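Hi R.,

Here's the chain you asked about this morning:
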Amino acid sequence: MVEALIPKETGVGFRMAKEEPPSTSKDLQELQKKLSLLIESIQNNSKVVAFMKSAVGQYLDRHPFMALTVLVFVVMSAVPVGFFLLVVVLTSLAAFVGVILLEDL
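And the predicted structure, written out as tokens:
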């Protein structure tokens, strides 16, 4: 059934996938170059170098899974902490507005 869709002139039992245009590979090389420059600039940052020389940085460098776990924990805990702080600020504002309104009456 598939053979019926392939022209007989090709002499091939199946069609090869289209090759990517040369601009795509050039774009990928340019992207790879930009990413490598970004990583290099992060690694050469003085604060990153100082952290990596500390005891905690050395430990996390030797234990990459622990570093990933700490990173995920910090990111995931930021959302509930942010919601809590938002509730605190909104409650304080509501209390402040309530006190001002009650003082006027």
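The chain has five helices and no strands.

Let me know if you need anything else.
M.
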